[in-house]
Amino acid sequence: MTYTFDPLVPRPIDRPTEVPLGPLTEDQLVALDEAKIFAGPADPADRPAWRERLREWRADARGRHGYTGAAYERPGAAWAARCRTVAQVWLWDELLYDFEQGRFTPERFLADARERFAGLDAVVLWHAYPVIGLDDRNQWDFYRDVPGLTDLVRQFHDAGLHVFVDYNPWDVGTRRAGDDLEELASLVADLGADGVFLDTLKKAEPEFVKALERAKPGIVLEGESKLPVERIEDHASSWAQFFADSPVPGVLRAHWYERRHMQHHVRRWHRDHTEELQSAWLNGVGVMVWEVVFGVWVGWSRRDAATVRRMVTVQRAAEDLLLHGEWTPLAELAPGAEEAGVYGSRWDLGDQTLWTVVNRSDEDYTGPVAPGIPLLGPGVPARGIAAFLRAETEPTWVKELPDVPHDPDARFPHRLAVRKQPARSTGTPDPDAVVVPAGPYVLTVRYRARETGMYQGAPYVDEWKPLPPRLHDARTLQRDGVLANAVAVAATEVTNAQFTEFLERTGYRPAQPHRFLAWNTDADAPVTYVDLDDARAYCAWRGGRLPTEDEWQLAGETGLLRRGEPAVWNWTESEHSDGRTRFVMLKGGCDYRAEGSDWYVEGGRRDPDYSVKLLLPGLGLARGATVGFRCAWDLPEVTA
C-alpha cells in the first residue's frame, strides 16, 4: 500500500509557523492567527525583532477580535490557569477500578500519580468510546448508568483535583433522549463536573458555552485541537495535540495571546515526550498524561515521568511568576549554552527572575546557564530541563522545594496482556455440538483497525495523527496454536428459557447485579444482559466452559453453528489483562448496528473469521442487549 503521507512525520498543519521579522502587513497579521506554534528564529540576532512581531500580532489580534478576557475573571474557572497536569483515564482502568472488589479505587490511582508525576491537577473521566455502538446505549447512558460515579467525582474533588467529563458530538446513531446540550448541561450539574472535554472538536459554539455556564458557573471547556483565536475568549483551556515545535523552540500561540489560557501538550502515540515536555516548560503550560489510550498501554518512560515531576514542582511553587511575570521567550543565556543545545525562557516579576531551561542535546550540559541559583540541581541534563532563580530576597518557597532528580532512563515500559486460562471441563456436550479436532491449527482473523489495537502492543507507535487508510481500515492477522484435545462447541446459543432454568436450579445471583437480565422477555431468544462471569457460571453448571475465540472460529468455519434471533455477539473465553485494561474478543456479529460514525463498535452479522476487541467495563456495564454466549466442552483424549 502506498500512503500519500508519512505517518511518522508531522503533517503541514502540525508544523510551526514562521513569523516575518519586518513590520507585519494586515494579511500577515491575520495569517498568524492560524499558527499552532510560532517558530523560533535560529539566529539570536533576529530574536528581538521576532519578539516585537509577536507582541504586535497579539495587540492586533485582540483588537480585531474584541478580546475582553471576561471568561478568565470567573471565580469558578480560575483553577484552569494553574491546571498543568491532566490525566485522561478510562473509568475501568485497573488502576482506578478493582474488578475483584467491584469498586473504584481512586486512592490507588492517585498514589501512583503522586509517586510518578508529583500528583495531578485534574482528570478526564473517559466513559463511552471505544465500547459505544455495541448496543443502543448513548454516551449519556455510559455516565448515568455507572453506580457510584458521583461519589468518585467527590473523591477526586476531596483530593484537590478537578474533573472533566467527555462530550462525543459524533454520537448520533444510538438511542435518542434529550438534545445533546440539555443532556450535557444536566450531566455537568448532576455530577458536579468542573470541565468538559470536547472530543474531536476544536471549540464549542457560543450558545453551547452559555448553556453550560448556566449549568455550572465557571465551567472550563477544553477542545482537542488548535483553538481559533477568537474563541480563546470563552474557552479557558485547550489541547496542544500534535503540535510540532521548531528546532529552536517556539511559542504557543494561544498561551501567548492570553497567559491565563492553559494548554496541555499531548502526543498520544509517542514514546518520547521530550519535545512536548520541553515546549510546555518553556511556555509555562501543562501536559496531558495519557498512559492508556483506549485500552492500549502507551506508558511514559522513567525519564519523561521525572521531567513532569521536575516541571510541576517548580511551576506550582512559582505560579505567580509564570502567570503574571514579564515573559521573554528565547532569552539570552550564558555564552556557550545555546551552542550546546540549551535554550530558555525568562520570567520577571518584581525583584524575582526565573529562567526555565531545556537541553535539546543528548549530552549533559554543566557549563554556566543563567545568573541565578539552580532550583533543580546543577547543570541541565541531556534531553531534560532545569530552572534558575535570581531574587534580592529569596522567596520562602525555594527552601521548601523538594529534591527532584532527573532520571535518564528513556526505555519504554512495556506491558504484556496475559490471557486468563480456563479450567478443563469434564461435562457431556450437547448431542449436536460441533466437534473441533485436536491438533495444530492456523486461522486468518479479520478485524477493523481501531485505536484499541488487538492483542499485544500499540496499533500506532510514534505516529502523529493516524488517519485513513491507517485508521478504521480492514485488516487481517494470523493466529495459530495446538488443541491438546478435541473440543465440542454448542451449535446454538443459550436461550432465555435455558438460563432461567439454570437460575431456578442453582439460585445463582451475580455479585454485581446491575443490569443483570434486564429487559429479556422472549424465551427462545438468546439470553443477553449477561456478562462473562454470568456466562461462565452457566457453562460450568452444564459441565462446560466458554469456547475460546479460536475454538469458536474453528467451529464456525464448519458452517454448523446456528444463530438465534435476533443475532447477537458471543462472549468467548478470551479475557486478557495487562494490569491496566481488561479486554475480550467477541465473535459472530449482531443484528444491531449503530449508524452515523466510524467511532462506533461495528455491528451487523459477521463471518466466523471476524473479531471485535471489546474493552471490559465493570459494575455490570458489560451486560447489554447484543451479547450472548454458547458453551463448549473439552472431550476426552482418544487412546488406542
Short description, anyone?
The chain has 15 helices and 32 strands. It has 640 residues and is α/β, with parallel strands linked by helices. It comes from Amycolatopsis tucumanensis.
Going across the biggest sheet, name each strand in turn: 2-5-6-7-8-9-11-12
* Poorly predicted tracts of residues: none
Give the % helix.
Answer: 10-25%
Rounded to the nearest angstrom, the radius of gyration is 28 Å
Approximately what portion of the residues adopt beta-strand conformation? 15-25%
| Approximate shape | elongated
The helix count comes to 15
Overall structural class, as computed from helix and strand content, comes to: alpha/beta
Count of beta strands? 32
Question: Can you give a write-up of this model?
Answer:
The chain has 640 residues and is of the alpha/beta class. Strands 2-5-6-7-8-9-11-12 form an eight-stranded parallel beta barrel. A five-stranded antiparallel β-sheet has the order 15-16-17-19-18. Strand 16 (342-349) and strand 17 form a beta hairpin. Helix 6 runs parallel beside helix 7. The relative contact order is 0.12.
What's the SSE blueprint?
Layout: H1 26-32, E1 37-38, H2 47-64, E2 85-90, E3 97-98, E4 103-104, H3 106-117, E5 122-126, H4 141-144, H5 149-158, E6 162-167, H6 180-191, E7 195-198, H7 206-215, E8 220-223, E9 237-241, E10 251-252, H8 253-257, E11 262-266, H9 274-283, E12 286-289, E13 292-293, E14 296-297, H10 302-317, H11 319-324, E15 326-328, E16 342-349, E17 352-359, E18 373-374, E19 385-391, H12 396-400, E20 418-419, E21 434-436, E22 439-448, E23 474-483, E24 487-489, H13 496-506, H14 532-541, H15 549-556, E25 569-570, E26 576-577, E27 582-587, E28 589-590, E29 604-605, E30 611-615, E31 627-628, E32 632-634
Parallel strand pairs: 2-5, 2-12, 5-6, 6-7, 7-8, 8-9, 9-11, 11-12, 25-31
Antiparallel strand pairs: 1-10, 3-4, 13-14, 15-16, 16-17, 17-19, 18-19, 20-26, 21-24, 22-23, 24-32, 26-27, 27-30, 28-29
Helix pairs in contact: 6-7
